Amino acid sequence: MIVKPKIRGFICTTAHPEGCKALVKSEIDYVKSQSHAEGFKKVLVIGASMGYGLASRITAAYSFGAATLGVIFDKPANGSRTASAGWYNTAAFEEFAKADGLYAKSVNGDAYSQGIKDKVIDIIKNDLGKVDLVVYSLAAPRRTMADGTVYSSVLKTVGEPYTNKTIDLKNNTVSDITVEPATEDEIQATVKVMGGEDWAEWIKALKAADAIEDNAVTVAYSYIGPEITHPMYADGSIGKAKDHLFETAKAITNADDGIKAYISVNKALVTQSSAAIPIVPLYISILYKVMKEQGVHEGCIGQMCRLFNTKLTRNYAETDEPCRIRMDDREMADNVQTAVNTLWSDISTENLPTHADLEGYNDDFYKLFGFNVPSIDYEKDVDL
Ligand code: NAD
């Protein structure tokens, strides 16, 4: 079948198998080209099929030769419907890893459920014994509890409405948007979905089954960003969930059984999750322009390769005062933020092409789904 992108709102409903495979291969090649620290050897990645989780998995496998077990929540192809990009990424990763003699298995199902936790733990016990690194990289819109209750996360402010500029990527226009405050129930639901409760449950289940090393490390990802995004992000409903994630890290470490939990504050990048946040895509497209011009831009793989090779290794973690790993160091550098602020205050539909890297933003967005890869002939039939 010939596969073309079909955009619906913030997502693309099709994915290209060959494009996804080529992009996974280029991330692998990037990691192979970098220098490597003494790293983790048996790695569980929860949320392993896209974005930061996929990049963490590729880094562990190709920096350290680690065995990786990935938890994904993806759809296989069905008739003329393509699989999800995460499904293709995972199939491609497993194929490359196996060809390179690396252990790689994946479990496709809801990471929040006890059934998937049990299945993963069985595989660890049978195949790996124990894991020494657990990456928690879920970005989910909802969580279904054991009793069937469904919590949905929202991307809203807390307290006051917030008005600022946003971009409509359908027609590349800049306009003002007002984001309304979340209700108390919505905030609590967002914390249930994106906070640390499920992360703690994973660590508890792994410990109870003796499937995690005594001195293992676990890391989850967060974002802080500049003030213009704070009402939407750091101080918004998602920020409340990230605060809970940080408290969970402290609780896991303070349990004093040797397992250390960290929050890595990562850079803002185009992923399926960030594309859905109002205001943030406009900020990201300005940030891309500035960071590319200053020669400090990184994608997910650059971030994760630097994280696990320089800031979070088997015996070392570089943290700031509240004990977070700052992978957003280059994004938050004064010269980057000053340049972003100057462009932000002046940006409009008319000067969008000179003030923002829209092309880079769109290119990354299409690539999430395996499109815009120069080596792929998109007019050719592919096996879904
Ligand atoms: P993403 O959308 O690219 O990936 C999310 C992953 O979670 C996918 O592999 C998806 O399949 C998986 N997933 C979702 N629901 C699941 C479920 N129920 N069970 C199993 N797997 C499930 O997201 P991302 O941007 O890489 O985000 C990962 C983490 O990084 C999040 O905590 C996010 O807040 C954080 N982060 C993102 C950015 C950014 O700009 N994108 C910046 C800093 C931190």
Protein model, in words:
With 384 residues, the chain is an alpha/beta fold. The chain is built from 12 helices and 15 strands. The strands form 5 sheets. The chain has a 7-stranded parallel beta sheet, with helices on both faces. Strands 1-2 form a two-stranded antiparallel sheet. Strands 7-8 form a two-stranded antiparallel ribbon. The chain is globular and about 60 Å long. 48% of the residues are buried. The mean pLDDT is 96. Bound molecules: nicotinamide-adenine-dinucleotide (NAD). The site of nicotinamide-adenine-dinucleotide (NAD) has 29 residues, from helix 2, strand 4 and strand 11.
Biggest β-sheet strands, sense, barrel: 7 strands, parallel
Rg, rounded, reads 20 Å
Determine the structural class based on helices, strands and strand pairing.
alpha/beta
CATH superfamily of the domain at 7-143 and 186-277 and 297-331: NAD(P)-binding Rossmann-like Domain
The main sheet orders its strands as 5-4-3-6-11-12-15
Number of helices: 12
Order of helices and strands: EEHEHEHEHEEEEEHHEHEHHEEEHHH
Please tell me what the overall shape is: globular
Determine the mean pLDDT.
Answer: 96
Instruction: Tell me the name of the CATH class of the domain at 7-143 and 186-277 and 297-331.
Output: Alpha Beta
N-to-C span: 7 Å
Helix content: 40-55%
Bound molecules: nicotinamide-adenine-dinucleotide
- Low-pLDDT parts are none
Strand content: 15-25%
